[in-house]
Design brief:
Layout (H helix, E strand, L loop, with lengths): L1 H9 L3 E6 L5 H11 L3 E6 L2 H19 L5 E3 L9 H10 L5 H16 L17 H5 L18 H11 L2 E5 H10 L4 H4 L3 E6 L5 H9 L1 E4 H18 L6 H17 L6 E4 L9 H22 L4 H20 L13 E7 L4 E7 L3 H8 L5 E6 L9 H7 L5 E5 L5 H4 E4 L12 H16 L3 E4 L3 H18 L5 E3 L5 H11 L3 E4 L16 E4 L10 H12 L4 H18 L10 E5 L3 H4 L3 H7 L4 E3 L2 H20 L1
Parallel strand pairs: 1-10, 1-11, 2-4, 2-5, 3-4, 5-10, 12-17, 12-18, 13-15, 13-16, 14-15, 16-17
Antiparallel strand pairs: 6-9, 7-8, 8-9
Helix pairs in contact: 1-2, 2-3, 8-10, 11-12, 11-14, 12-13, 13-14, 18-19, 18-25, 21-22
């Protein structure tokens, strides 16, 4: 794999590289990237992986090669403490909880000793603490070169280091936010880079879709109103009756949310009834916002912060206008959009999402020739890369697969239980738990239960708590949402006999080696929810071309997702375990075969006794190894 990457770098070509778990793909791309010289942008799936590459993997390889390369880490603005906003928050004293006051004290201490300002270094303040929003900047609230702290700014410092470094580690969100918004410092890096490497590249279609789309929400409007009121009263009290300026805008934003009485809703534009209260409410919001902009324009020169509010109001107004602007007939493919709304309990989001990111991303890759490497453990469906290549617009590019070195036939077993009801039946999650309990007992805990919905996570947690209590089973139960992902995983590893229940965020990027994880239970095949407006528009577009939406889109997506979940089980050559997939469609449907043939070549069984015995055999194996 390293040779293939080296060749792509030397010839400035594109390579799609699928490497099974345990191949050592990180080293396979780092070695050529560090030896070949030139500037490398390395983009990974999450901030955790970014830190791991920067703090652990790159230093290891650099030392082994004795390569004199400089490395920089670049994250989005929200990760760096902002001197100006920290100062302002300290002066305002707007904090409500005692906890936040304590956190703020930690952050003021931290800013005096840190050289990076990266909040990941300050473990005493949880990453999700609301106080971070008050002490970091956004693109809208950054003063830029006007700021008195510009010389000490951590964001600027990180960007400067990135411009000078040979290797820059970013994450996909940052990469695409930049391509779309030009706000994160990657735009200045790209022209000089001769190699771009995407690790965890299977996540790119979703991330790119997010950033090449555009959304605007009622909560953004309400946030703006709150700031307009505060800044107006602080700097231009006599300039306008500020409460009366913001009230009609706030009311219009709330009325827009109330156009949908349901709690949570996702509808495409064509699904909203023309007689719905939504359209008049949207018009009212646009008009009231224009009224507020007129007042802000009159007062803008009185303070920099009022000018910022004006700019934000104009931006929101433009997005609202753009959202359902009348469509032109002959739209080029890169501009085909799906318009849809999503309602949450207290806000409404209006989205426009590109139908396909392939034409947009192809455009991004034009320009000066450079190497593009896309790598992940899951890019192909049974060695076929077509689905991924067509999503990303990587037509006719070289694609190769390197299988895992693990002996899956000996190390793992795929078990599909008999007699489970259809996945859409009401008692399905209960049936899954009934089938899983004897397996969890046989494995001595040490299990992940991966669900496709949050509702299933909650029901499974409720049932297992009850059953563990009844049967007096000593397995600690950990449930997604009870603590942050990193903390749950640390507890899981430390316990050694725990059961962790999670949904999507535990299907990938989670590495638990050794005995702590010996059983992975997957409740259902991970098909995307059929009511997803973007999915249905994409399927419609495929069917217009005479393709089958299920075969060409939903099935390959589900297979790639399932491969990620299955990949949690065997993490090195001494791991053993059972992958239990509860969904009867794996056996009963004609497409089931294609799915299990895309999974690692485990032995297979439908017999519960055989599956339970696998754990007992493992103990004998371990025993004989010890005596040997």
């Amino acid at each position: 794999m390293a040779k293939a990457v080296a060749q792509a770098i030397a010839q400035r070509q594109t390579l799609i590289a699928e490497a099974g778990t345990g191949t050592g793909k990180t080293f396979a791309y780092l070695v050529p990237a560090l030896l070949w010289g030139g500037k490398v942008i390395l983009s990974t799936g999450t901030k955790n992986l970014q830190d791991q590459l920067y703090l652990r993997d790159i230093p290891t390889v650099r030392k082994a090669l004795n390569a004199p390369v400089s490395v920089a880490l670049l994250k989005g603005r929200a990760n760096y403490v902002c001197h100006f906003h920290l100062e302002r928050t300290l002066q305002n004293g707007r904090l409500t909880s005692r906890e936040d006051v304590g956190y703020l004290r930690e952050i003021s201490r931290f800013i005096k000793t840190t050289s990076s300002g990266d909040k990941a270094e300050l473990s005493k303040v949880p990453e999700s603490a609301p106080v971070w929003n008050l002490v970091t900047s956004t693109r809208d609230t950054c003063m830029g070169a006007e700021c008195q702290y510009y010389q000490d700014c951590f964001v600027m410092k990180a960007r400067k280091e990135a411009q000078q470094a040979d290797v820059v580690v970013v994450n996909h969100h940052l990469f695409f936010a930049d391509v779309a918004l030009k706000d994160t410092g990657v735009a200045e890096l790209l022209p000089s880079a001769n190699t771009v490497i995407f690790d965890e590249a299977h996540q790119l279609p979703e991330t790119a879709t997010l950033f090449f789309g555009e959304s605007v929400s009622t909560s953004q409007v309400l946030e703006l109103c709150r700031d307009v009121l505060a800044e107006g009263l602080a700097h231009a009290r006599d300039g306008a009756e500020w409460p009366k300026v913001v009230a009609p805008v706030e009311r219009a934003a709330r009325d827009l949310r109330l156009a949908f009485p349901q709690d949570v809703v996702r509808l495409s534009l064509s699904q909203i009834a023309p007689s719905s209260a939504f359209f008049p409410a949207l018009e009212t919001l646009k008009q009231e916002l224009q009224g507020m902009i007129a007042v802000l324009e009159n007062q803008a020169e009185r303070a920099e912060t009022i000018e910022q509010c004006r700019a934000r109001a104009v931006e929101l107004s433009t997005r609202l206008e753009r959202w359902n602007a009348p469509a032109q007939d002959d739209v080029p493919p890169e501009q085909e959009r799906v318009l849809w709304v999503e309602a949450f309990s207290s806000s409404l989001q209006l989205h426009q999402t590109p139908l396909s990111i392939a034409p947009i991303f192809s455009k991004q890759r034009e320009g000066s020739p450079r190497a593009w490497i896309f790598t992940s453990a899951t890019l192909a469906v049974k060695n076929d890369f077509n689905h991924y290549a067509s999503q990303m617009g990587l037509w006719n590019e070289r694609a190769q697969s390197w299988p895992s070195p693990f002996d899956y036939g000996r190390q793992g077993l795929l078990y599909v239980p008999d007699n489970l009801p259809q996945p859409n039946s009401l008692a399905y999650t209960d049936a899954v738990i009934d089938a899983a309990l004897p397996m969890i007992e046989a494995a001595g805990g040490r299990a992940f239960l991966l669900c496709t919905t949050i509702r299933a996570v909650n029901r499974a947690a409720e049932r297992l708590r009850e059953e563990f209590g009844k049967r007096d089973l000593p397995f600690p139960l950990m449930v997604q949402g009870e603590a942050g992902r990193t903390e749950l995983l640390e507890r899981f590893r430390a316990a050694g006999n725990a059961v962790l229940i999670g949904s999507q965020s535990f299907w990938e990027g989670v590495d638990v080696r050794g005995e702590a994880l010996s059983l992975v239970i997957i409740d259902k095949l991970p098909f995307a929810p059929p009511d997803d407006p973007v999915l249905s528009a994409r399927i419609e577009a495929l069917e217009r071309k005479g393709l089958n939406g299920f075969v060409h889109h939903q099935l390959p997506e589900a297979i790639i997702n399932l491969k990620q979940g299955a990949g949690r089980l065997i993490r090195d050559e001494t791991d053993r375990g059972v992958l239990m997939i509860c969904d009867p469609r794996l056996i009963s449907k004609p497409y089931g075969r294609r799915i299990w043939q895309s999974l690692p070549p485990f032995k297979r069984t439908r017999d519960a006794a055989v599956a339970r015995a696998f754990f007992a055999d493992g103990d004998h194996d371990a025993e004989s190894l010890r005596h040997a």
